[in-house]
Design brief:
The protein is an alpha+beta fold. The chain is 51% helix and 14% strand. The chain contains six helices and three strands. It has helices at 9-22, 34-52, 88-95, 104-115, 119-123, 127-141, and strands at residues 56-59, 62-71, 78-83. The protein has a three-stranded antiparallel sheet. Strand 1 and strand 2 (62-71) form a beta hairpin. Helix 1 crosses helix 2 and helix 3 runs antiparallel to helix 4. The termini are far apart. The relative contact order is 0.14. The model has no long low-confidence stretch (mean pLDDT 90).
Amino acid sequence: MTKKQVMPIEQAEAELIELFEEMEIDTDVESMLPDNAEGFSNTLRNLAMPITKGRAIISDGEYVLTLRKPFGEGENKETTITISEPSGAAWDAMKTAGRKDNGMKGTMLFCATMVGIPYIQLTKLPASDFKIVKEFALLFMV
């Protein structure tokens, strides 16, 4: 079964670039080193794909992702997560991972704080949802 495309990829990428520029993320691939430009283009495409399929929208300066597997209990069941520009709390959370961390737990703590969910809930997200959160977070970590 093929999923219907809700929005063309070019339009989704254009909306993302507007969002990135609001967050002061460099979007000028012409001024980037070739490897960085390729990485940015890949990230842009990865974040645009859920928009083209209707799984994500950009609203009020935030990226809202519909989760493949909701979390929580009863009335508190969460079906979406909102990804917005991280605050200092995200950086502080990453720092709590400590020196012995290989970087992954710190990145995950950063992501959890950035989307406003507990770390334990983030670890339970399906890989496809976590990948989107991580891709977005990495834009701020370069």
